Every structure is written in structure tokens, then in C-alpha cells.
């Protein structure tokens, strides 16, 4: 059977051309109505890309809903997309599979947060504590560091889409203002805390602790999948007893586990913090989650109200 040639699509009316502009009527077969195409390797970076993009970009996240940013294994489609999109917003060192894929298939433009912010090596630890070899990736828990990434994302979007450069710059500035306000809320809200030692289920809150004058003591290290040794547990108990700690915090994504067991053994309270690694529940975002963390810290560290 002889295949018939495909019919030629014609725009018989102006209305038809408006509806079918993405097909053949534009006269530009390469026209792209999706705007700037972006892939972000984790939720905080996805949040920044969407806020700065202001509707001019489409953002895909690499971490599936409920997934762990530390344990991402890319699908073949995701690997291919890295080479197709206009910009990748990424944090090198957190996801080895993404790092490897970008080396082979990456686009011309990559915003690597590790090149924008100063990644400290396990910041917020008590004096004399052993230092981890790997940098702490959770920089976004310091809002001022996330603002720096927003500015870098704006510059990259503008390079790809100069027509909307002003929109990107304005959006990054607006986000920067919101993050500055969030930073001020933390500075004021944690200024009058009776406790300054932040005992957490794992060391995800070093940048937050460093920014706001707290000392982080993690039951586990930077990798929550690594069980703490008996020696580590003894060290944590010693710190808790020596610093008059009242609350042990566990993470919303991992559950209480050892944190609750330790709290029960020592007669302490438990609190819940969110490292903001995963997309929050519907209706919530980075900012609202960080403010919920602030309220949890104020309660767990026995803080006076601002101005009290």
C-alpha cells in the first residue's frame, strides 16, 4: 500500500493561525513556545528558578516527589534532557549521578551553586569537634546564601533570553528582599533563646546554626543513611548533659528514630525541623517551611518573643 503524503496544514482564518501558531503557521519551524527550558537538581534550586523565571521559563526537577536529593539516580530520559534544555541549575557534589551526566551531556549554561556560595565544611559544629571531609550541601538553610544563587540564575536566564532580562533581574531582587526579611526574622526570633545548642538527628543545619549563632550537634553526620557509632552517641549525650539541652530535633522526612529514643532516655522534648530538601506539601513553599522551622526552634530552644 502506497503511503499518502501528509496533508498541508493551511491557516484559513486569522483565528486559525492564532490557535495553531505552534505548528506551521508561524513560518518558523524552530519557534519554541515553552520559553527558557530549565532543569533543577533539587527543590531549593527549583524554587529559585521558578521564582526568578516569572512565567518565562519551564522548570523540571530531577528529584521525584518524596525522593531523596542525596540518592538520586537519573533515568535515561533525565540524562538526555540535561543536554537539551537551556539552563541547568545544580549543586555539584550532592548527586554523583547528576555530576557525571552533566560532564557528558550538559548544556552550555549551568548554574552550579557550589561556584556561587561558599560551601563550608560542616559549619556550626562545637569547637574541637571532628570535621567532615565533604562540604555540607545544605547551604539554602541560610537565606542569604540562597539569595546569591537567585542573582546568578537571573544572569544566566538573561543571557539565554535577553528580551526578558529586566523581568529576571526584578524577580531576583524581589526574592532577595523576601529572603532578607526571612533572615531578619531569624535574627530577631533567635536572639533571646535560652538554649544555643541545636541537637539534630543529622548534620543538615550547619549553615543555619552558623548564621544565627547556634551550635549544631548531629546524632548522625552529613549522610543520614550512616548510623552513628556508640562512641558518637556517647559524645552527643555528654554534650546534651553538659549544655543543659532541653530538646532533640528530628527531621520531618525521616521520622523520630534515634532522636526520640535519645530524648526519652534523657527526659528531653522532641521537635521537628525540615531541611527543605524535598518539595513541601501543597500550599507550602521554601519560605513558609523556613518560617515553620523558626517557630519550632523558638519553642525547642526556649526563646523569648522578639522584643520580649
UniProtKB/TrEMBL annotation:
Q: Which family does it belong to?
A: Belongs to the bacterial solute-binding protein 9 family.
Cross-referenced InterPro entries: Bact_metal-bind_prot9, ZnuA-like
User: What are the record keywords, sorted?
Assistant: Signal, Transport
**Any GO BP:** metal ion transport
Signal peptide location? 1-26
Query: Transport as a keyword?
Result: yes
Q: What is this protein called?
A: Zinc transport system substrate-binding protein
KW Iron-sulfur (keyword) present: no
Task: Record the organism.
Answer: Geodermatophilus siccatus
Amino acid at each position: 500500500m502506497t503511503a499518502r503524503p501528509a496533508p498541508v496544514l493551511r491557516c484559513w482564518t486569522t483565528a486559525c493561525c492564532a490557535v495553531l501558531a505552534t505548528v506551521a503557521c508561524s513560518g518558523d519551524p524552530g519557534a519554541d513556545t515553552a520559553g527558557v527550558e530549565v532543569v533543577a537538581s533539587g527543590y531549593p534550586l527549583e524554587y529559585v528558578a521558578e521564582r526568578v523565571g516569572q512565567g518565562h521559563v519551564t522548570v523540571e526537577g530531577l528529584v521525584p516527589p518524596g525522593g531523596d536529593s542525596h540518592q538520586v539516580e537519573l533515568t535515561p530520559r533525565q540524562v538526555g534532557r540535561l543536554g537539551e534544555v537551556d539552563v541547568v541549575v545544580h549543586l555539584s557534589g550532592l548527586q554523583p549521578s547528576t555530576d557525571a551526566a552533566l560532564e557528558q551531556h550538559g548544556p552550555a549554561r549551568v548554574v552550579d551553586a557550589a561556584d556561587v556560595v561558599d560551601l563550608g565544611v560542616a559549619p556550626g559544629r562545637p569547637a574541637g569537634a571532628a570535621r567532615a571531609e565533604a562540604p555540607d550541601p545544605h547551604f539554602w538553610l541560610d537565606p542569604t546564601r540562597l539569595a546569591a544563587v537567585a542573582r546568578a540564575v537571573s544572569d544566566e536566564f538573561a543571557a539565554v533570553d535577553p528580551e526578558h532580562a529586566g523581568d529576571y533581574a526584578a524577580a531576583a531582587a524581589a526574592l532577595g528582599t523576601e529572603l532578607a526579611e526571612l533572615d531578619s526574622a531569624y535574627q530577631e526570633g533567635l536572639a533571646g533563646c535560652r538554649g544555643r545548642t541545636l541537637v539534630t538527628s543529622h548534620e543538615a543545619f550547619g549553615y543555619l546554626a552558623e548564621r544565627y549563632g547556634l551550635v549544631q550537634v548531629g546524632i548522625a553526620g552529613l549522610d543520614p543513611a550512616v548510623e552513628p557509632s556508640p562512641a558518637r552517641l556517647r559524645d552527643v549525650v555528654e554534650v546534651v548533659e553538659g549544655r543543659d539541652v532541653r530538646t532533640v530535633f528530628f527531621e520531618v522526612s525521616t521520622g523520630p528514630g534515634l532522636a526520640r529514643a535519645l530524648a526519652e532516655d534523657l527526659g528531653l522534648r522532641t521537635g521537628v525541623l525540615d531541611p527543605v530538601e524535598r518539595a513541601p506539601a501543597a500550599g507550602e513553599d521554601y519560605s513558609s517551611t523556613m518560617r515553620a522551622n523558626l517557630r519550632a526552634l523558638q519553642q525547642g530552644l526556649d526563646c523569648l518573643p522578639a522584643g520580649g
